[in-house]
User: Which sequence fits this backbone?
């Protein structure tokens, strides 16, 4: 007994058939005169329970614009068990008055390839008869896809046989009440041919620019990806959602899960220094990186800041919160050696007419000689009595223009790295000592600033002349006693000769 409640199992599915493009037949169809399909009912087991599915009153007669064709494939007869037989009943209108009868053909696209041309897909091929009701038995192959809808086509034609190859042929030859064609969908219950296509990634789906994710599909024989690519595996390098439609040789299809890929830009890493990149040996410069959350330096150090003490090119690789890495700019570090003095200059001791030479040996790039004036060292330049003031050898002539015990030194440099030689001095022979051979005169202090005291061996009265190094008398004094004082505050700084009638002595005015 047919279960009338099983009519409720008929469902309407609105999904499209992927890759299917069925032909559209035509026929002359005249309402109330041409053979028309009024209803279709299918009986069979669904999960082992005998059930009936029916189109009810959804038939459209001659179809759109009387072409004799109606596409009702959005409606599905769903879930008949594979490997068994089903019965299909087609009820028709306008057949009783046509004495030559009406032919019925039914096709089912079992392999889902978009046509009815394969062997066994024409399941009903009846000669013209006169009834209004065709009960026919159909065997369902055990190779059909599990719960995947496919197309079922029903054709009525008046007065002529419909050949199995005429699923797409137009039936309007002569245009005499030709008939009607309707397309529906049907699916089958076949767990042994069930598909489950899945896509799985290799590695992370949170990518960095310039890297790829490999996606692999499984569960089918052939695959078409949402990108249009084919094959079971693809590589992607852009943000998006990806899935695959898998199929088998029998046309079974399944759509995989959706995999979302995120491609992140690389971080913009930069390094900078607050101090000069060229510095002296023993000093350092601090470099700081930005643009990431962690850093690995080309020196092997890690962290946002590093201290560099050696010459070389330095860069950093920064990693952001997504694990993406970027390489920074490169900074060139130059560490300058301090000058290494291998030989210090020596003081000069000689006569006023001699030439003083001071020499320093070092691996310096630059030299600058200085002399001390009023307790402060200042640079001297070539000219006058000086030569070689910016070389490793200083020559000083015309010593009469210099004070006794004049101090000199050399400042050596490599870039901004400096070292200074020992202080050396010029000591003029005879200055500050008796020059009369009789040891009758001595003076103090020497050098002097404003007053000289003459220490005489015997008390005496006489004239004293003060003469400069050019032989000019610049001051005359009369002295008396063993400790006579002479005011020299009016004299300019320099070397002078103090002359008495029995001898002379040099002194320095500072």
Assistant:
């Amino acid at each position: 007994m047919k279960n009338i409640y099983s009519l409720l199992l008929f469902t309407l599915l609105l999904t499209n058939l992927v890759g299917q493009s069925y032909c559209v037949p035509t026929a002359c169809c005249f309402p109330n005169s041409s053979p028309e399909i009024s209803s279709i009912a299918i009986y069979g087991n669904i999960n082992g329970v005998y059930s009936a599915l029916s189109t009810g009153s959804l038939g459209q007669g001659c179809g759109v614009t009387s072409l004799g064709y109606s596409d009702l494939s959005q409606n599905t007869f769903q879930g008949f068990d594979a490997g068994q037989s089903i019965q299909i009943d087609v009820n028709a209108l306008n057949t009783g008055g046509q004495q030559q009868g009406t032919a019925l053909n039914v096709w089912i696209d079992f392999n889902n390839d978009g046509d009815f041309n394969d062997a066994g897909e024409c399941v009903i091929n009846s000669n013209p008869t006169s009834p209004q009701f065709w009960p026919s038995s159909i065997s369902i192959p055990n190779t059909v896809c599990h719960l995947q809808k496919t197309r079922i086509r029903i054709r009525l034609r008046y007065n002529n046989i419909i050949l199995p190859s005429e699923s797409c042929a137009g039936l309007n030859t002569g245009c005499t009440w030709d008939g009607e064609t309707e397309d529906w969908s049907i699916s089958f219950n076949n767990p042994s041919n069930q598909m489950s296509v899945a896509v799985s990634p290799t590695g992370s789906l949170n990518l960095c620019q310039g890297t790829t994710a490999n996606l692999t599909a499984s569960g089918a024989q052939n695959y078409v990806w949402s990108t249009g690519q084919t094959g079971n595996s693809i590589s992607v390098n852009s943000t998006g959602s990806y899935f695959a439609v898998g199929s088998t040789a029998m046309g079974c299809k399944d759509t995989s899960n959706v995999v979302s890929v995120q491609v992140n830009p690389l971080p913009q890493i930069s390094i900078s220094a607050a101090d000069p990149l060229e510095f002296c040996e023993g000093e350092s410069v601090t470099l700081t990186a930005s643009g990431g959350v962690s850093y690995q330096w080309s020196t092997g150090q890690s962290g946002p800041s590093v201290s560099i003490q050696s010459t070389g090119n330095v860069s950093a690789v920064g990693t952001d919160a997504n694990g993406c890495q970027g390489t920074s700019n490169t900074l060139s570090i130059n560490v300058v050696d301090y000058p290494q003095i291998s030989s210090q200059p020596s003081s000069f001791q000689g006569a006023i007419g001699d030439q003083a030479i001071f020499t320093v040996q070092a691996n310096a790039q630059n030299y600058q000689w200085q002399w001390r004036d009023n307790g402060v060292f200042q640079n001297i330049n070539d000219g006058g009595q000086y030569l070689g003031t910016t070389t490793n050898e200083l020559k000083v002539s015309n010593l009469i223009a210099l004070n006794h015990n004049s101090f000199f030194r050399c400042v050596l440099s490599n870039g901004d790295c400096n070292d200074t030689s020992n202080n050396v001095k010029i000591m003029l022979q005879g200055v500050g000592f008796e020059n009369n051979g009789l040891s009758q005169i001595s003076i103090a202090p020497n050098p002097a600033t404003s007053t000289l005291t003459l220490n005489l061996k015997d008390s005496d009265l006489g004239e004293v002349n003060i003469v400069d190094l050019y032989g000019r008398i610049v001051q005359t004094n009369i002295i008396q006693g063993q400790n006579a004082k002479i005011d020299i505050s009016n004299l300019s700084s320099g070397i002078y000769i103090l002359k008495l009638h029995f001898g002379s002595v040099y002194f320095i005015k500072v």
